[in-house]
Design goal:
389 residues, alpha/beta, 8-stranded parallel beta barrel, two-stranded antiparallel ribbon, 10 strands, globular
């Protein structure tokens, strides 16, 4: 497909499947490949009762989210800290580090769509046409003043990130479930939000989704006299008064229902159409809750985006620990048992064939199509005397 550069990609005629210059003849991808991620996220927020994004911290995790059909990817800062630094969420990584992680993740999703669109012709695996989920990225407290926010937002927007959230903590920030949090003045937070919006608009992405987070509910220090839920509501209303945030997120310290219901109800008294983001936090033992929130119930309260920050981290730790325990006890049989589970008939574990998951069939076909035999299915070299080896 040749894109008319005079026509924005989002204005191109909608088609189910289209060709791509990066695919050999006969293969295709969903036309949504050329819908900007921010536009796609806004459309999903408009048409879905709620949008759920599993939390990941690397490209492979995001690809698995995409493979299993989820409509959004949440790139968690806490997961990034654990997965890349082996430490907690205390502002120990820089804006450039997480922005580069997000950039590589967005690029990996675009590549993975091509990989899936090829399948594995040699093994009779048919193409699979996957939509690219928008990626929502943690911006913590902006990693500095408004000019740090300016730089970070530029990195995110140019990386193809659909949305980012910014919180109102002092620097260095803390995980929302670590004690001792303090808030910057509301005016400083509003300046950072205005900068986010201004940078995205300046870069030609007015659809970039801005999420404002307040930690007012459990902060121990703030310029205002109010504390607790009253402070969180006051902050939330001030942020929405600016007209900037598309979603409002209050970080709750427990899984209790009442604070969530009160916060959303009070905010909607002034802003009836307000939409919220909700961290279905893995810090809470939801399995011990007598009546845990369902995603549908959160959607009915006005929550537009639901995410589990450390879901991928816990799954990775559980799965790898299971394998390591088995191999410690049974050596090679522990790994062989993993393969049995992966290759169980009907199981949908795309990584069981790292050959296909990493895109070897795609590279072979494209290598042939681009006349680059070394990247194709055979390596052919012509000697000076005309012989082929």
């Amino acid at each position: 497909m040749v894109i008319d550069t005079a026509t924005p990609p989002t204005m191109l005629p909608a088609r189910d499947l289209v060709s791509s210059p990066l695919l050999p003849d006969g293969f295709s991808v969903p036309a949504t490949r050329w819908t900007h991620p921010s536009v796609r996220m806004r459309e999903l927020l408009r048409t879905e009762p709620y949008l759920f994004g599993p939390g990941v911290y690397d490209p492979m995790g995001a690809q698995l989210v995409m493979w299993h059909g989820f409509r959004a990817v949440y790139f968690s800062g806490y997961s990034f800290a654990i997965g890349h630094l082996g430490t907690t969420d205390m502002d120990l990584y820089s804006s450039v580090e997480i922005a580069d992680g997000a950039r590589r993740t967005v690029a990996a999703l675009r590549k993975f769509q091509l990989t899936a669109a090829v399948g594995d012709p040699d093994k009779g695996v048919p193409p699979r046409h996957l939509d690219i989920p928008p990626v929502i990225v943690d911006m913590d407290a902006g990693y500095g003043n408004i000019f740090n926010v300016q730089r970070t937002t530029e990195l995110y927007v140019t990386a193809g990130v659909a949305a980012a959230h910014l919180e109102d903590q002092v620097l260095p920030k803390r995980c929302g479930h670590i004690g001792g949090k303090a808030l910057v003045p509301a005016g400083e937070m509003l300046g950072k939000l205005r900068m986010m919006r201004a940078v995205a608009d300046d870069l030609g992405n007015p659809d970039f989704v801005v999420i404002a987070r307040t930690d007012g509910l459990s902060a121990v220090d703030a310029p205002e006299p109010a504390r607790g839920l009253d402070l969180a509501i006051e902050r939330g209303l001030r942020y929405l008064d600016s007209g900037i945030p598309d979603l409002l997120w209050c970080e709750f310290p427990t899984a209790d229902r009442e604070p969530v219901e009160t916060f959303t109800t009070e905010i909607r008294k002034r802003f009836p159409e307000a939409r919220f983001a909700f961290n279905y936090s893995s810090s809470f033992k939801w399995f011990n809750e007598p009546e845990p929130f369902t995603f549908a119930e959160l959607g009915a309260l006005g929550v537009g985006f639901v995410f589990i920050t450390l879901g991928g981290q816990h799954a990775t730790g559980h799965g790898l620990s299971t394998l390591l325990t088995d191999m410690a006890e049974r050596e090679e049989q522990g790994y062989i048992e993993l393969q049995r589970r992966e290759w169980t008939p009907g199981a949908d574990h795309p990584t069981r064939s790292h050959h296909q998951f990493s895109g070897v069939p795609y590279h072979h076909l494209v290598g042939q199509a681009f006349d680059a035999a070394r990247l194709g299915s055979a390596y052919v070299e012509h000697l000076p005397d005309g012989k082929v080896v």
